[in-house]
Amino acid sequence: MKLTQQDILFRTHENMKEMVSAGQGKEYSVHYVKNTFWEFPNLNIYEACVPDHMHHIDLGLFKYQLEFTQEILKKVGGLELQKIFDKRLRQIPRFPGLKLLSKVG
User: Fold this and answer.
1) Are residues 98 and 77 in the same domain?
2) Which domain holds residue 66?
Protein backbone atom coordinates (compact mmCIF):
# COMPACT_ATOMS: atom_id res chain seq x y z
CA MET A 1 0.00 0.00 0.00
CA LYS A 2 1.45 3.35 -1.03
CA LEU A 3 0.05 6.52 0.45
CA THR A 4 0.63 9.97 -0.93
CA GLN A 5 0.30 13.28 0.87
CA GLN A 6 -3.09 13.73 -0.83
CA ASP A 7 -4.36 10.46 0.69
CA ILE A 8 -3.81 11.68 4.24
CA LEU A 9 -6.30 13.94 5.98
CA PHE A 10 -4.88 15.48 9.13
CA ARG A 11 -7.56 16.18 11.68
CA THR A 12 -8.25 19.75 12.63
CA HIS A 13 -11.01 21.23 14.71
CA GLU A 14 -12.46 22.74 11.51
CA ASN A 15 -12.63 19.61 9.36
CA MET A 16 -13.85 17.38 12.20
CA LYS A 17 -16.61 19.88 13.01
CA GLU A 18 -17.60 19.90 9.31
CA MET A 19 -17.68 16.08 9.17
CA VAL A 20 -19.89 15.84 12.23
CA SER A 21 -22.20 18.56 10.88
CA ALA A 22 -22.43 16.75 7.53
CA GLY A 23 -23.32 13.47 9.24
CA GLN A 24 -20.01 11.80 8.29
CA GLY A 25 -18.76 11.37 11.84
CA LYS A 26 -19.18 7.59 11.96
CA GLU A 27 -17.03 7.25 8.85
CA TYR A 28 -14.15 8.92 10.70
CA SER A 29 -14.87 7.50 14.18
CA VAL A 30 -15.93 10.93 15.40
CA HIS A 31 -19.06 11.14 17.50
CA TYR A 32 -20.78 14.36 18.39
CA VAL A 33 -20.34 15.57 21.92
CA LYS A 34 -20.28 19.15 23.13
CA ASN A 35 -16.72 20.08 22.21
CA THR A 36 -15.58 23.17 24.07
CA PHE A 37 -12.41 23.38 21.98
CA TRP A 38 -14.46 24.13 18.85
CA GLU A 39 -15.45 27.45 20.40
CA PHE A 40 -11.85 28.73 20.36
CA PRO A 41 -11.16 30.07 16.85
CA ASN A 42 -7.39 29.45 16.70
CA LEU A 43 -7.03 26.32 18.80
CA ASN A 44 -6.43 23.07 16.98
CA ILE A 45 -6.70 20.49 19.76
CA TYR A 46 -5.13 17.88 17.46
CA GLU A 47 -1.91 19.91 17.32
CA ALA A 48 -2.05 20.84 21.00
CA CYS A 49 -2.02 17.18 22.10
CA VAL A 50 0.91 15.84 20.08
CA PRO A 51 2.59 13.03 22.02
CA ASP A 52 6.33 12.76 22.48
CA HIS A 53 6.69 9.62 20.36
CA MET A 54 10.17 8.63 21.52
CA HIS A 55 9.28 8.63 25.21
CA HIS A 56 5.78 7.33 24.53
CA ILE A 57 7.22 4.11 23.11
CA ASP A 58 10.39 3.97 25.23
CA LEU A 59 8.53 4.15 28.54
CA GLY A 60 5.99 1.53 27.49
CA LEU A 61 3.13 4.03 27.46
CA PHE A 62 1.95 3.01 24.00
CA LYS A 63 1.39 -0.62 25.02
CA TYR A 64 -0.32 0.51 28.21
CA GLN A 65 -2.53 2.93 26.27
CA LEU A 66 -3.62 0.17 23.88
CA GLU A 67 -4.41 -2.25 26.70
CA PHE A 68 -6.23 0.43 28.69
CA THR A 69 -8.30 1.44 25.64
CA GLN A 70 -9.20 -2.19 24.96
CA GLU A 71 -10.41 -2.65 28.53
CA ILE A 72 -12.58 0.47 28.32
CA LEU A 73 -14.05 -0.65 25.00
CA LYS A 74 -14.81 -4.09 26.43
CA LYS A 75 -16.62 -2.57 29.42
CA VAL A 76 -18.57 -0.07 27.31
CA GLY A 77 -19.48 -2.16 24.28
CA GLY A 78 -18.33 -5.70 24.85
CA LEU A 79 -16.25 -7.71 22.44
CA GLU A 80 -17.81 -6.07 19.37
CA LEU A 81 -16.17 -2.69 20.06
CA GLN A 82 -12.91 -4.41 20.86
CA LYS A 83 -13.05 -6.26 17.52
CA ILE A 84 -13.58 -2.96 15.67
CA PHE A 85 -10.61 -1.45 17.51
CA ASP A 86 -8.42 -4.47 16.70
CA LYS A 87 -9.47 -4.34 13.04
CA ARG A 88 -8.50 -0.68 12.81
CA LEU A 89 -5.15 -1.34 14.46
CA ARG A 90 -4.43 -4.05 11.89
CA GLN A 91 -5.18 -1.56 9.10
CA ILE A 92 -2.34 0.75 10.16
CA PRO A 93 0.42 0.31 7.58
CA ARG A 94 3.68 -1.20 8.81
CA PHE A 95 6.86 0.84 8.60
CA PRO A 96 9.55 -1.64 7.53
CA GLY A 97 12.46 0.76 8.10
CA LEU A 98 11.61 1.48 11.73
CA LYS A 99 14.46 0.67 14.10
CA LEU A 100 13.46 -0.22 17.66
CA LEU A 101 16.33 0.09 20.08
CA SER A 102 16.06 -2.05 23.18
CA LYS A 103 19.13 -0.67 24.94
CA VAL A 104 20.96 2.57 24.35
CA GLY A 105 24.25 3.52 25.96
Assistant:
1) yes
2) 52-105
- pTM, rounded to two decimals: 0.41
Domain count across the chain: 2
Query: What does each of the 105 residues of the chain score in pLDDT, given as a tens digit?
Result: 566 777 777 788 888 888 888 988 888 787 777 778 878 878 887 777 766 766 677 777 778 888 888 888 888 888 898 889 889 888 888 777 777 666 655
Judge if 1 and 29 occupy the same domain. yes
**Are 83 and 101 found together in one domain?**
yes
Nearby residues of 74 by Cβ (< 8 Å), 6 or more positions away = 81, 82
Phi, psi of 43 (to 5 degrees): -110, 115
